[in-house]
Amino acid sequence: MKYLVTGAAGFIGSFTCLELLKKGHQVVGVDNLNDYYSVQLKKDRQARLAGKDGYQFELLDIADREAMDRLFKEGQFDVVINLAAQAGVRYSLSNPHAYADSNLVGFTNILEGCRHHKVKHLVFASSSSVYGANAKLPFSVEHGCDHPISLYAATKRCNEMMAHSYAHLYKLPVTGLRFFTVYGPWGRPDMAAFLFTKKILSGEPIDVFNNGIHKRDFTFVEDIVDGVVKVSAQTAVSDPDWSADSPNPATSEAPYRIYNIGNNESVALMDFIRTVEKACGKEAEINYLPMQTGDVEATYANIDAIKDAVGFEPQTSIDVGIPKFVEWYRDYYQH
Fold first, then answer.
1. Which of 73, 89, 196, 334 is most buried per CB count within 10 Å?
2. Residues labelled as active-site residues
């Protein structure tokens, strides 16, 4: 099979490319190497892929319509995994146009490429942030998601609705994956595991919002990628039991599916911090702060749907995953 993976120099994208190559697929990776965070980290992730049989890298922006038209015309992809996006809830407060360009314009270009070039299955990254103001835990794909509380979340919810329209109009099989707080080696510098590890090892105080009263469904990257690859191999189909009178928001009469992909466990933030402290061998100095705009108090993934569909079973607790991350961080930054 020939795959297009966007965001190939990103955290989840680089691991996804590696796993697909291990399974013998051809992979074209796309990334624009933007400077939202360290370009060198992105290049180093990409270096892990360079030279591997079956891999080709293209430096381009998914928001570039002409470049994407050429890519799809020349590529003739069987499956597309769209992981490229402007990420981050907090950054969306200060730079909203970046989210419109990448997450809306860029995703439109992905949908059009898949439509016109007969892609067999589009898998795309959504986010647990779409649950927004919902308070009922665990979050289920059968819950409504119509009250996002950040622009980032709103763009991801838009992606889900845009994808459904293409599934309905053009019978394009699409599957959206709502990621829950992914962490692990080669992770993003703006995520909790990275921020806490960096500051604890450097003897700097860590900022803890909402006075530490947070819970998150922390999910190890290798578990996430296992789910992404399994879902990509099972093309979305219409739900024969779907009813317009009582519509299931996670399925459709069109070839459309939405899944949560998380660890199925909600961990208290302070327990997470204590695990990072243990792995670092140092206690954190904590700067407690109020809740930040656009944030939510808790996330917790109900993963029954993806478990039933493809046998997804996360294997990694934070007691195992955090030491692996800290080991990578110490090695990469020679700390």
1. 196
2. 152
